[in-house]
UniProtKB/TrEMBL annotation:
Annotated ranges, domain Mur ligase central: 107-285
HAMAP family per record: MurD (MF_00639)
Enzyme class: ligase
Protein's recorded name: UDP-N-acetylmuramoylalanine--D-glutamate ligase
Function noted in UniProt: Cell wall formation. Catalyzes the addition of glutamate to the nucleotide precursor UDP-N-acetylmuramoyl-L-alanine (UMA).
Family: Belongs to the MurCDEF family.
InterPro entries per the UniProt record, alphabetical: Mur-like_cat_sf (IPR036565), Mur_ligase_C (IPR004101), Mur_ligase_C_dom_sf (IPR036615), Mur_ligase_cen (IPR013221), MurD (IPR005762)
Record has Lipid metabolism as a keyword: no
Keywords: ATP-binding, Cell cycle, Cell division, Cell shape, Cell wall biogenesis/degradation, Cytoplasm, Ligase, Nucleotide-binding, Peptidoglycan synthesis
Originating organism: Formosa agariphila (strain DSM 15362 / KCTC 12365 / LMG 23005 / KMM 3901 / M-2Alg 35-1)
Catalytic activity: UDP-N-acetyl-alpha-D-muramoyl-L-alanine + D-glutamate + ATP = UDP-N-acetyl-alpha-D-muramoyl-L-alanyl-D-glutamate + ADP + phosphate + H(+)
Amino acid sequence: MKRLVILGGGESGVGTALLGKEKGFDVFVSDKGKIKEKYKNVLIHHDIAWEELQHTEAKILNADVVMKSPGIPDKVPLVKQLVENDIPVISEIEFAVQFTTATIVGITGSNGKTTTASLAFHILKEELDVGLAGNIGDSFAKQVLEDDFKNYVLEISSFQLDGVVDFKPHIAVITNITPDHLDRYNYDFDAYIASKFRIAMNQTKDDYLIYDADDPVLVDWLEKHPVQSQLLPFSLVKTIENGACLEKENIKITIDNNQILMSARDLALEGKHNVKNAMAASTVAHLLKIRKQTIRESLENFQGVEHRLEHVLKINKVQYINDSKATNVNATYYALESMSAPTVWIVGGEDKGNSYEELYSFVNTKVKAVICLGVNNEKLLQNFSNMVDVIVETQSMNEAVKIAYKIAEAGDNVLLSPACASFDLFENYEDRGRQFKDAVRNL
């Protein structure tokens, strides 16, 4: 009996444990932190061995294969030890994919992957048997075990891609690549790019890679590191023969001379970046033979993703917008770009080595006040103090929202778009977004 050790007892860890047990592995789950009650109960119910608050090396180094949670860096001593002992350390995606014959759509990128994956799923579910997993929703492994869908849309982070060996999606999407998580890649941008492109490394000429042809990082990398798959670029400015582009306010998608035209005006989501997300998702749908009418209707009625430019409430003619999912500068760039009214901007958190220069033009033209919400706001103050009349520091969401309420006037926006990780003051970006929404509702 092969021994499967799982590091991390969260959604992906417990899903993998269930699938591993079903497939005849001797399973052991080890978490250095506390395992949530709901996950503990599942492990106990299925008679799966586990430990928390420690990693017992004797019970881990005897593994045949190790699945590690994407949150655990490769440079942790235990992980290094496993690698030195030639024990394969893989991600949930790599483990689960060997037990399904489904058609896989894999979506990665620095920004837009959640929206693109949710949107692709929203279209496909109208006509196909499909699951949504990866970095989003229920664990992929658990869905392979319980639902066995014929198709999956997987949102995949670079950390998950670092742990793949044979994973080969039939359709891969890379939305864009901007410097993010560089702390996990020794501040080497090329290493981060290479990590994202692992999504296409096993693809053949029968597979597809959909990517943003307006992103110089992607275009440059593909020129130097060609892939086997068929390329389907999308662009807002170029004319694309095979792929997606804009033609007079219309999104035009062409695959092997088969064309769809859709009005970009009718999209439920606002902003240029969402036109791109719609292009990517519709190209996926077109490849999987979804009817044009279904694609059009789905794009018009899609509600969007929580914590991503989410309109919370209008109070005294001021619109409050939750973009807590903007954990890097590029995501905040899109948010500020889409603001069409004077904006009170709540920003800050755990800085991942950010450079704020690309935001300067928007801050100068659109932002009337900056509210810094972080343990250390030094860098924000240095960058933006001389651009706006009002810049305030705060350490609590309630206070930030109250200050915004005082500053904002009828017709303004109050935008939470932090450009930083949330771990200095919040559990995660969801917690930060929910606290923002609660504070707004309590005004």
